Amino acid sequence: MCEPPCASLVSALATFLPLLAATAEPALPALLPHLAGLRAALLATLQEEEQEEGDDSGLGATVLEEEAAVEVPRWLAAGVRRVQLVLQGGPSYELTKARVEAAMAQFGALESCTLAHSSNRVGASGWVVYREEAAALAAVHRLVQVGECEVYTRPTCKDLTGHPVPHQVVMMLSRPVGLWDRDLQVRRVFARHGEVAAVEWRWSGGILRLLVSFKEKVVEGLVGSTVEVFKEKVVVREVTGFTMMD
Question: What CATH number is attached to the domain comprising 148?
């Protein structure tokens, strides 16, 4: 049983209660050291009882640590806190900092928010940084309503590992595409492979990448195939830290 902690608690009570009864109200602060000892004895007793009732193996602390651990997908590096925002619908001027912060705070506390509007919708429209990794993991790869706009969230390319993201593909194009309905056309091309969640154009390192995100896992056989996009035949590749490297 819990004899040592219980005995300590009984002894502390036996010492404290007579002192409390004999002390006048103005002198009560002088009992604080005795009260602190009583509190310590009580906590020790409770801790011993919890260990006996809920953890016969003596591994309670380890179990709690495992439950608190954040499960990171193998295609993401540990410590992710920054989440990119890619505008999918709505006028970009509606994407204000206040609206973004309000919408993205549903996943956790924010450390910062930065907007980077692009007139031709190439690249991310901004990003947020969360205080905790768990919040960032909960926020990535979602369609989020921000006022009249809809944004798709994804991790930064530098946070990707060598394992493929299961619901994204990327293609390298040799020339820019200036059509106003280019996103709609891309969605039509890939609709037969699954429901498209987001389309992103990313120009970096002299390469134009077309990134397509699906709501579900990429269908088997799509990666490695050749598709025609805007009269250009391109190879569909996995999205990894290598294929997205500048």
Answer: 3.30.70.330
